[in-house]
């Protein structure tokens, strides 16, 4: 088997490369069928997924059995300013990959987001709940999902939420930095969701690709909290002397409206390959213990 990973230097892509190389994640061993497989990782310099012709030529030449699309423009505020770039990467990119994969019969994994929902309610969203994105980022990711479903017959759409990993920028690293520098931080306390460790996402993606259980999968950490709760646990587990103060979304004055409620129900994982996603506090504790603070 040959696996192609786009966005291989990002949060998810890096852990995909690492876990495939080591043969195991923090949750356990990867499936035997993909031990010692050939893995090709690409960034935007090697493969611009928004260029249809280059994508088709590249995939036709490489002939992967599975393509995992971890490439995305995830800057929520930036998407509002650079709308064209958001749609090129988050919508046209997946479309091009889906068309190219279909031509050679390859499986396609596309990583989406909780932002495809409207963030209204108090019941975790299931995979087939109505999509109603409230931002350019969410709308561009929804369009990417739509294209994947339209042009690929062998797809896995994976929706995580509140993602953090060992590579790149994320909420955990930001809170650690601010807590150490300032001693007092203020964090939004009226938005709820599921913090999700990249290790857990990758573990389940690799379980899925050895099956033919095609479809849409929510893939988020177990349990929900607010960003304030999340920050409090980060500071506690890192043993940093810092006061964390709650505030409202209105007080924070974000440029883009964030979902007030974006918890996900991993229903389809439970019904297929099994839901082993860790409780968010457990996964966070392991993460904090593994990084240099």
Could you characterize the architecture of this molecule?
α1 packs across α7 (198-208), α4 packs parallel to α5 and α8 (227-238) packs across α11 (280-290). The protein has a single domain, classed as 3-Layer(aba) Sandwich (Rossmann fold). The chain has helices at residues 11-22, 52-62, 76-81, 83-104, 136-151, 171-182, 198-208, 227-238, 249-252, 267-271, 280-290, and strands at 2-6, 24-25, 28-29, 38-42, 66-69, 107-111, 155-159, 163-164, 184-188, 192-193, 196-197, 215-218, 225-226, 243-247. 42% of the residues lie in helices and 17% in strands. With 293 residues, it is an alpha/beta fold. It has a six-stranded parallel β-sheet, with helices on both faces. The protein contains eleven helices and 14 strands. 49% of the residues are buried. A hairpin with a 2-residue loop joins β2 (24-25) and β3.
Provide a short characterization of the protein structure.
With 293 residues, the chain is of the alpha/beta class.
The helix-strand sequence is EHEEEHEHHEHEEHEEEHEEHEHHH
Mean pLDDT: 96
Per CATH, the class reads Alpha Beta
- What is the end-to-end distance? 38 Å
Strand line-up in the sheet with most strands: 4-1-5-6-7-12
- The CATH topology label is Rossmann fold
CATH superfamily: NAD(P)-binding Rossmann-like Domain
Organism: Inconstantimicrobium mannanitabidum
Protein name: NAD(P)-dependent oxidoreductase
List keywords for this structure.
293 residues; alpha/beta; Rossmann fold; six-stranded parallel beta sheet; two-stranded antiparallel sheet; 17% strand; globular
């Amino acid at each position: 088997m040959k696996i192609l990973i786009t966005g291989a230097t990002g949060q998810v892509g890096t852990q995909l490369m690492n876990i495939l190389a080591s043969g195991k994640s923090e949750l356990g061993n990867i499936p035997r069928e993909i031990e010692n497989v050939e893995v090709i990782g690409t960034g935007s310099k090697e493969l611009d997924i928004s260029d249809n012709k280059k994508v088709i030529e590249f995939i036709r030449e490489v002939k992967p059995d599975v393509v995992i699309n971890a490439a995305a423009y995830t800057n929520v505020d930036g998407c509002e300013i650079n709308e064209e770039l958001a749609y090129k990467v988050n919508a046209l990119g997946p479309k091009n990959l889906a068309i190219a994969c279909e031509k050679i019969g390859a499986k396609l994994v596309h990583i989406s987001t909780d932002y495809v929902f409207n963030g209204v309610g108090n019941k975790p969203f299931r995979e087939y709940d109505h999509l109603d994105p409230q931002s350019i980022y969410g709308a561009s990711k929804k369009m990417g999902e739509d294209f994947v479903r339209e042009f690929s017959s062998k797809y896995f759409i994976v929706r995580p939420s509140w993602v953090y990993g060992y590579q790149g920028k994320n909420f955990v690293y930001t809170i650690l930095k601010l807590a150490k520098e300032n001693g007092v931080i203020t964090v939004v306390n009226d938005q709820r969701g599921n913090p999700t460790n990249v290790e857990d996402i990758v573990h389940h993606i690799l379980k899925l690709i050895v099956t033919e259980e095609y479809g849409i999968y929510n893939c988020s950490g177990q349990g929900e909290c607010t960003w304030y709760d999340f920050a409090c646990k980060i500071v506690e587990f890192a043993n940093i002397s810092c006061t964390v103060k709650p505030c409202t979304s209105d007080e924070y004055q974000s440029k883009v409206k964030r979902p007030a409620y974006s918890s996900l129900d991993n229903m389809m994982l439970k019904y297929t390959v099994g839901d082993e996603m860790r409780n968010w506090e457990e996964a966070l504790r392991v993460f904090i213990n593994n990084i240099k603070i």
